[in-house]
User: Fold this.
Amino acid sequence: MKRSIQEALRWASSFLNQYGRDANVGEILLRDRLQVDRTELLTRLQDPLDIADDDWLEEKVRDHVMKGIPVQHITGYEWFYGRPFTVSPDVLIPRPETEELVAGTLRRAQHMFPQRSTHVCDIGTGSGILAVTLALEHPEWYVSAVDISHEALDVARKNAANLGANIAFYHGNLLEPLLLTGHQVNVFICNPPYIPDPDMLSLDDVVKDHDPAIALAGGEDGLSMYRRIIADLPKVLMDKALVAFEIGSGQGMSIKNMLVDVFGANARVEIETDINQKERMVFAIIHNNK
Ligand code: GLN
Assistant:
C-alpha cells in the first residue's frame, strides 16, 4: 500500500525526533532522491510515494538514526558558499562556520592586494572547499592546496574539476610542499584539526564515527597543528601577507601569542567570533621581514 509523501515525511520526522535526531533529515533525503526543490515537494505532498522511494527513505532514515551516518554521506554532497561539493568519509564535511572564514579572508585580501598578484595556499584542503571557493571567487588568483591524504586530494581534485577551479594540488605534510618548492604566498588559509584529543570521545556520533579523525584531532590541547605551522610560516610568506586560520572556541589567545612570538610587532592579529558568538577565526596581517 503506497503512502503519500506527506505520510512518509511525518513518519520520518517523528522517528527522527524520537531518537533525538534532526527532524529535517527525512525531507532533505527525499528531496535529493526525487530531485525536487522544497517548493515542488510541498506541492506534491498528497501524491503517492513509489514503494521503492519509500523503502529507500525508510532505510536511509534508519541508517542515520541508528548508525549516525551523516546525510551528506548518503547524498554525497554538501553546499558551501553557494556551491555543491562532493564529500566522502575521507574528508571533513563542510561546516557553515567555515563560510565565515572565506568571507573574512576575501574581504581582507581584496583590500590588501587590490592590484598585486595574489598567491593563495590552503593547507589541509580536505574536500577543497577553501581553495576551490577562493579560486572561483577570484579566477585571477593563483591558488594551491596541500593535503597529506591521497584520498582527500582525490576528492578535492574532483571538486575543482566539477566546479571549474584552477588549482595546483600538492601531496604532503603541512608546509612541506611549499618549503620543498620554495613557493611563497601572500594569502595563507587553513582549517586544521583543532579538537583537543580528550574531547574527541564526547563528540556527537555523526561527527566522531563518520568524519575522519585526521581532520579533527589536534593533539592534547588541540593546538599542535598551529604550533607546527606557525613555526614554519616565516619561510613561506611573502613580505606582506594575510594569514587566516579557523580555530576552536577559546583557542584565539593561544594562537595569537604563537603568531606574536614568531613575528613580533610585524603581526597584527584579530580574533573573530562566528555567528554563534564562538571564537572561530584568527586573521593576521603580517609584514614578514624574515
Ligand atoms: N568544527 C569542526 C567540528 O566541531 C572541527 C573542525 C576542525 O577540527 N577543523 O566538528
Notes: Residues 95, 191-195, 207, 216, 246 surround glutamine (CB under 6 Å). The first strand starts at residue 77 and ends at 80. The two ends are 73 Å apart (CA to CA).
